[in-house]
Design brief:
4 copies of one chain form a homotetramer.
Chain A lengths: L2 E9 L4 H11 L3 E10 L4 E9 L8 H15 L3 E5 L7 E5 L4 H11 L10 E3 L5 H6 L4 E3 L7 H14 L4 E4 L8 H6 L4 E5 L11 H8 L3 E8 L9 E8 L6 H24 L3 E4 L2 E4 L2
Parallel strand pairs in A: 5-6, 5-8, 6-7, 8-9
Antiparallel strand pairs in A: 1-3, 1-4, 2-3, 9-10, 10-11, 12-13
Helix pairs in contact in A: 3-8, 7-8
């Protein structure tokens, strides 16, 4: 391995950057990118570092991780994740009946624009199976009713574990995820909500936006938490509308926003540029 | 008078445009601009027309209005307002302590960019009197407390009537307007709210937006109705923020949005391009 | 046929709207949407009308067109097109090696979001054949070199005529279209240019934008005319960038813009909401 | 002095951050904000640091600067500027006849939103003297003609030196600045251009944008260099327009953009968050 990405946070203290960069420097790593942020309100320090070890022929990640945690990590109570940027994470796709987001995710993935592996697609409806087939990705139809919800989630969980899924994207999956399933993927379930959150949470946001007479509509991608549509926001974008736009126009314009916003969030997440703290995200560029 | 603006609405029916334009045509008027909109959900027809009568040397507005209402107006149950675009409306400015919006309104007015007359400024605090003086506009300090609120509004109303005010702008006026006062100026009180409504209504929206971790903040100008921050939206705009922006950045970026959005709304209102129906606005360009 | 769309323009004169709407009214048509615009600089009148004839059981388009042209059409020198909104136009897709736009066009078309027929895809390279196959659309590989360009366009023209193509989309087709071919499809060839025109026309706009240090990048969809990247602009959009974005980021962010902007332009064109005059577009909503 | 801002750049090398932060750390400084950027194409390292020395009772800037330059500065060939954030820079305002930008700059300055001192305003026309008087700022009328241009700039330079001006804002000053004057203020003359550069440089950009039929207009604030409208871009923003907007609408919408974009650029510059390299800006948030 030649490249290493480190994403860390810890209580804010003097000398963190100096010590961490020193350590990397002494271990023959060349820092090719560093970005950091301090939440002054909560006195938390966040840092993302891209290191190049090509000068270090005998580099071992395990050894480096161990040494780092023993020394700097312990001293500053650093919580640090280590990633090999060459290894794409495994993403499961949950859908229902809307096809605009899944088409975009699969097309972009197929075009090599989204660095993930997509082992399977799961849906509570059979409608979109043809799209999965078109892109040659296994499709599992797991119906969900009030009565079968628990059992359905057990089946979903089996799949998620069998395929060693790293994170889940809800590409307009119209079911509420239970706290049990969320607990298995904390800040690892990405949803696209078709409104400018916190405006219009819940069902039928385009109808609500149209009735309210807003002049701008939006879409929001966020991590799923127990409270509906209240998780950490990763990305948002908007489009202008006017009285000339009918409800159907809101929906069409909005669906293009949804595709764009979800894709950006997925790219940022898969590049491990998103850190979550205190129900907010730090998104490094 | 050479120019006339007509703003009308009525139940949607066949032949309205033909009959109205015919009538104007037969009365020696040349239509230089026409814009119309049909709310299909409620079957309401809206139209704004700019007419040039310079070919009609003996034109009389009263006569034309009378003839129009008698014929086309009655036939289609048209509710029509007639304006002379040359006569600027009279606008009262309500402020409290924030000065960014009033500075912008007075500067733009002074620069001839805002076609209104500003007979006076009223505030529940004396702080901004120096700005009124700088722009040579009468400033009335009417303190408002829970106890004196009713009396204070009576004083305000006296001023509004004495100066024959056409509409009011709340340039960050931090008091709730009573239903009584609103009743005197239905859809004629314009407020600027420092959030992307309906997100973050009420107090301290920047704090709420910062705590929620949104990636985009906004400002909204709307007509004041009895329900707080729920009136017809005239204009909105947004700006991107990131985790790098502190609460103070939200406020600074937002205040520039407030200025811009309020000014646009004031221009659209003063040009009589805004029509209100069903708690929504139709804003003709 | 129950619905008819009429798109017309003529020298601006008094009474056009009245006479046209009258004529439709007298012919048992109910105007469900009308939008018009006057280019005052050139005194040209433009109008788009959606008419519902369901009250008119024996309606005949040919008869109506004939009667309309004989009476109102002749009187006002109206140039009017008549469309049945139920009949989607036939669109040919030209591509080279970039796949992001074609993926989006085909996905959206397949999802029923783009009301066109796509009889074939043509490319000067074989690279994207697999995408055409994935969406089961005939793919023609017509190589183009300086030497074979004329012959290649003859082949393209044969295809365009054989399939009775209504308009062409250049979904990142990296060849200049000859005046001969353009002459066959005046204002019927839609290109997506990966910059905010007129900034950065020609090749490698992202490189130029990166070198210039712009803070905002854009994409532009326009009709192809003889002068490169100078045709009538249909739609544009932008995205913010900063010094943190490398050239590769410009390209990735930009390609998402290209997809969005091209799709919007295609929707507007296929709904016949775009009128061209004096190298500018009138785009009715 | 309790706070110090350091803005530095140097050839990119290993260990810069570690050594600089170490040095500050060892000198009893607490880093409250750090932002850095590496231009990989040119291998240049940029960093902005905010340091708090309140723990260091006997802190001396001169001593610190000297020690820093001797040790870390020399070692990494660092070019570093040291600022006391408490001392606002002195800004001269150049105007001609347009008043929207100067009104905004003076209003915002007066409202305490722009941390500069404004010792004087200079203009080649007397028209805006009343605004200077309204805000009680000295106004110098220095006419400029082809014949007197050199002499006029000598007078301007005298004023700039007499008032020890740090930087100049051209708030719609319609004269070209000579290379001689630019040489006195390299990257210290901020201009607002009323187009989305590099589109429509030079005169009458709104007219050109209107004629070209763009769907989005913009404004650009940049540092003045010898090549007209080609200097490093600090900030840009845009607004959507349509065929419904006449030339006068382009101008009105655009002037609000100009005010907003210029103000943002001035805030970023006065906070020393802008670094210039290779005719591009690095703008730290």
């Amino acid at each position: 391995m030649k490249n290493l990405n480190m994403v860390m946070h810890c209580p804010d203290q003097k000398g963190i950057i100096a010590n961490v960069t020193n350590f990397i420097h002494e271990n023959k790593g060349n820092i090719i990118y560093i970005d950091q942020y301090v939440d002054r309100v909560h006195a938390i320090f966040f840092m993302r570092i891209e290191v190049d070890f090509k000068g270090h022929l005998s580099f071992s990640l395990d050894q480096f991780r161990g040494d780092f945690n023993k020394s700097v990590g312990t001293r500053f109570a650093l919580n640090c994740d280590f990633f090999d940027p060459k290894i794409p994470p495994k993403m499961a796709v949950f859908v229902s009946k809307h096809d605009h987001c899944i088409y975009d995710v699969l097309s972009q993935h197929h075009a090599g624009k989204l660095a993930v592996k997509i082992p399977f697609i799961v849906s509570n409806h059979p409608d979109l199976k043809h799209i999965a087939q078109r892109f040659e990705i296994p499709f599992y139809h797991i119906p969900v009713t009030a009565a079968t919800k628990k059992e359905a989630e057990r089946e979903q969980l089996k799949l998620l574990e069998a395929y060693q899924i790293d994170f889940i994207v809800l590409a307009r999956y119209m079911q509420i995820i239970s706290p049990e399933l969320i607990a298995h993927f904390p800040n690892k379930i990405i949803n696209i909500h078709h409104s400018f959150l916190p405006a219009f949470p819940g069902a039928k946001p385009y109808h609500s936006a149209y009735d309210r007479g807003v002049k701008i509509i939006g879409a929001t991608s966020h991590y799923v938490t127990e409270e509906l549509d209240a998780g950490p926001i990763i990305e948002q974008d908007i489009a202008r509308v006017s009285h000339l736009h009918q409800l159907q126009d809101f929906i069409e314009i909005g669906q293009d926003l949804e595709r764009l916003v979800l894709l950006r969030a997925l790219k940022q997440h898969t590049q491990r540029k998103v850190m979550v703290y205190n129900n907010k995200t730090i998104v490094f560029i």
